[in-house]
Inverse folding.
């Protein structure tokens, strides 16, 4: 597999992965404002979704869809945000972000200026769901 | 089909659509900084990708993928950004944004604070590609 030196997604630590197989990984991002922020990262250093062969593209879509389901089941967000940007790290990856009316940016995207601080107790309550989220994600991929 | 009064995507004007069928539409967004900014909007007022039956989810993915291909062929962006957010309008839609190193926000997402003004002549050159982009998108969906 082609590895690009200096690409942080080519060099993703195995310990950070909730799910890992020969094609992609699922990780939970440690973001203080967004407990449950997850990423699906393609293993190979591929730039765009349309650079993937059809079967692989469908595999990515399926992975994103499974993680979205796990996020909804456990975190019960008001909305899920999905994005594949890659302007800074042009190695295919998807952001999945559970959004709430009281989160730091709602209703703006998380990349806009922050609108508020979320009650720390509320954030703590969401963080407490992470072990359950990790298990839910693992279950979604257990039948592959 | 369920229509939600006041939802701008339930009430999308037919004239704005580059592609329209019984399931979804493709539109080109009139954004001064981002010629080629496109959206795939689901016709039905559905909130999340994971609310769709499998066949419809794959139809959305296929539509996004086709529009991405057309964007790359005609606009030749440095990167394509894909996002389904829906915090403001919780009616399923995908943003497809061709990104360039000299665009207003690069490498930040387009929802961050602007970093610069793009040379008006460069933006004009990109806008001049829109008729060709429209045709390329139409061709991608011509065989359905």
């Amino acid at each position: 597999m082609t590895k690009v030196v200096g690409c942080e997604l080519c060099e993703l630590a195995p310990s950070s992965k909730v799910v890992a197989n020969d094609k992609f990984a699922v990780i939970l991002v440690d973001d203080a404002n967004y407990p449950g922020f997850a990423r699906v990262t393609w293993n190979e250093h591929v730039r765009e979704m349309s650079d993937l062969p059809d079967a692989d593209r469908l595999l990515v879509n399926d992975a994103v869809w499974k993680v979205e389901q796990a996020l909804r089941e456990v975190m019960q967000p008001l909305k899920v945000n999905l994005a594949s940007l890659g302007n800074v790290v042009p190695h295919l990856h998807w952001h999945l972000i559970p959004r709430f009316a009281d989160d730091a940016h709602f209703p703006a995207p998380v990349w806009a200026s922050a609108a508020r601080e979320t009650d720390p107790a509320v954030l703590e309550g969401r963080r407490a769901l992470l072990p359950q989220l990790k298990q839910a994600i693992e279950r979604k991929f257990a039948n592959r």
Remarks:
- The interface with chain B takes residues 47-50, 57-58, 61, 64-65, 68-69, 72, 78-88, 90, 99, 106-109, 111-113 of chain A (CB under 8 Å).
